[in-house]
């Protein structure tokens, strides 16, 4: 279990939109939904603040952002959001957004 200062620091690192969503679920006494958001937040951020933070950590100058459709038999359809850099010429995965996550954000 994390100590209170560590929990506070972790909470403050989350984007405001994610914190608001978690707070909303907690206030509705929907703890499993809140936990689901916490688990998904580090893996598939879809809010602008999180994506910008991840892009800011990419080494090199970003020259493009690409969204690539992909799919498999385990996860169904998903989109890989990539930051493309010039020097070094590389692709950096910013997020993998699964269809279920996209549907959740389109419905709300």
Kindly describe this structure.
It is a single chain. A hairpin with a 3-residue loop joins β1 (62-72) and β2 (76-85). The chain has helices spanning 4-13, 16-27, 31-43, 48-56, 99-107; strands at residues 62-72, 76-85, 90-98. The chain is of the alpha+beta class. The chain has a 3-stranded antiparallel sheet. α2 runs antiparallel to α3 (31-43). Helices cover 49% and strands 28% of the residues. The protein has 2 domains: 1-43; 45-108. The model has no long low-confidence stretch (mean pLDDT 82). The protein contains 5 helices and 3 strands; from the N terminus they run ααααβββα.
Helix-strand blueprint:
Elements: H1 4-13, H2 16-27, H3 31-43, H4 48-56, E1 62-72, E2 76-85, E3 90-98, H5 99-107
Antiparallel strand pairs: 1-2, 2-3
Helix pairs in contact: 2-3
Quick summary of this structure?
The protein is of the alpha+beta class. It has five helices and three strands; from the N terminus they run H-H-H-H-E-E-E-H.
How is the biggest beta sheet arranged?
3 strands, antiparallel
Helix and strand content put the structural class at alpha+beta
- Shape annotation: globular
Percent helix: 40-55%
Number of DSSP helices?
A: 5
What order do the helices and strands follow? HHHHEEEH
State the distance separating the first and last CA atoms: 32 Å
In round numbers, the mean pLDDT is 82
Looking at how many chains there are and whether they match, the oligomeric state comes to single chain
Major sheet: arrangement of strands: 1-2-3
């Amino acid at each position: 279990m994390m100590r209170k200062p560590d929990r506070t620091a972790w909470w403050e690192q989350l984007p405001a939109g994610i914190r608001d969503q978690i707070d909303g679920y907690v206030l509705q006494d929907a703890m499993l939904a809140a936990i689901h958001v916490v688990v998904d937040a580090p893996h598939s951020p879809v809010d602008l603040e999180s994506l910008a933070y991840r892009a800011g950590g990419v080494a090199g100058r970003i020259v493009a952002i690409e969204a690539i459709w992909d799919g498999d038999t385990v996860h169904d359809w998903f989109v890989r959001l990539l930051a493309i850099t010039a020097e070094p010429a590389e692709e950096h995965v910013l997020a993998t957004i699964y269809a279920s996550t996209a549907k959740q954000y389109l419905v709300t």
